Every structure is written in structure tokens, then in C-alpha cells.
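Study this protein:
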Amino acid sequence: MPGETGEARRFETLLALAAEAEPHLMGSDDAAWMDRLERDHDGLRAAFSYFLRHGKGAEALQLAADLWLFQEERGHADEARDWLAKSLAAPGAEARTVTRARALYGAGILAFRKLDADAARRSFEECLAIAKERDHVRLIVRAIARARGEKADAVTPLHMLAAAARVDGDIGRAREIYRENLALNRELGRPDVVSVELGNLGALEVLDGNISAAVPFLRESLEIAYKRGDRYLAPYELVWLGRVALAEGNPARGATLFAAARTQFDATGLAMDPDEGPEYEKGLAAIQEALDEKAFSAAWATGKKMSLDEAVALALGPV
């Protein structure tokens, strides 16, 4: 029917848009591309449903593989998990293609960020097997890094080295490497990685007791993440600025920021990374110890009601 033909053409155009956007979702212009996808998100949702309904599993898989990173960063992680699961199981998507491997990689990342280690490993292992069959070097490297439990997305070997030093308790070495990677990615124009490494440097300073040194790193990290619409990273900086508030003698402010961060994690469908969760619990316990029950409950209730805009305004506002 003519209407169906026009609809199909519109959805193919949206499929092409997602494919065009995907290489730009990690780079200097990633926020602009994500904003564009956000504007077309309802249409992309309709396209995904259309492809599944009409037996176009390969197209549904391509759309899910191209969009999961955008969906994760912009607060739609549960939707991304659903798309990847449905499209990977769809008739027509069985072929062991690079697209299937990319979708499996995304499914693995999102399972990891839901703290489902078994599901993550299964996805990474199948991704790795297909990537080896296709001799796709970039996916091979990333799948191996994730299957071994490396922190974050292995954006650069320097980041991985710094993360390893941090886990080993060598804060000085981790600080040195994070600084090197920060400088490199400033030069490369990668605001996503710059924001991550600023946050890592701020966290290290908090852990090392250098609160005044931590603040500019954490504030700049949060400012960049918020400006980019990065709802994955921003809650982490709310947590660390909450730790700063506690260290500066304002546990009520810390409780509010911790609650606001928890609200954002819950809203996006993302759990804290395994190495960040214990630090959150440690900070929360210290905040609760510093406040009586009534004061803690009031501060926590305030934070739980905050939007991301309100939480960021508090975190970056006057103490």
C-alpha cells in the first residue's frame, strides 16, 4: 500500500541516520549527534518496532547496535537492553556479522552496568568469537578488555593502566597516568574522556584526603557531563562532591547529593560500577554516622525529589 511504502522509506531514512551517527558518538562532536538522535528518538522507536513487526531482524539489529551507546548516555539504558535482546533473538538477525558482534558488545556493557556478570561475560565471549571470525581488530581488543572485567570502556590503554594502579592502591601512579590521559584527550578534543578522567582525578584526591585539590576536578567533570547531556557520568560526580561536602563538615549536603545521585542511577537503569559501589556505601555510612536520624532523613528526602537539573545546581552552587 502507498502509505506503507512511505512509512518504510521514512524508517529506512532513520536507519541511515543512526548508522551515520554511530561513528560520531565517541568524539568531539558526540553531544551534537546525540542531541540530533534525541530529537528523532520517537521516530527511531517507531522504526525499531516496524522492523521487528515486518520480519526485518537485520535492520532491527543494526538500529539497536548503532543506538545503544546514545541510549545509555541519555538515560535510556533499559530501553537499550530491551532493543538489543529482542533484535539479537529476531529472525533474520542470526548471521555472525560485525553488526551482531557490535550488538553483543553493547548487550555486554549494559549487563555489566546492571551488575549481571554472567550475562555480560556470555555476550562478550560471543562478541569476541564473531570478531575473531571477521578479523575485526577493534572489537577483539574491546571484547577481551571487557571480558576480563576492565573498568569503563577501555577508551585508551592509558586509562586501563591508571584503573589498574588505582585498584592496586597505587594512587600516585594512578594520578600520574590519569593526568597523562587527560592531557592527551584534551588535545584530541574528546570531551567524554576528559570528563571521565577529571572525575577519576577528583576521586583520587578525595581518597587521598586532598579535598581542596579534588574540587576543581570534580566540578569541571560535572560541568562537562551535564553540558553534554551525559546522564551516565553525572551521578558519579554528584557522589564524589557529596564526599567533598562531608569532608568539609556539611554531611547534610552530602546526604542530599548522595540521594540525588541514587535517584539518577535508578532513573537511568544503570548500577554503579563494581569499584564505585563500595565507595558509595562507605561514604553513605560516614554521612549517616555524622547526622542524627531526623536530619539524615530530611536531607535524603530532599535529594530523592531532585531532578538532575536541581541536583547539578546544588552540586555546583555555593556551599
Remarks:
- Residues 149-155 have pLDDT under 50 and may be disordered.
- The radius of gyration is 21 Å.
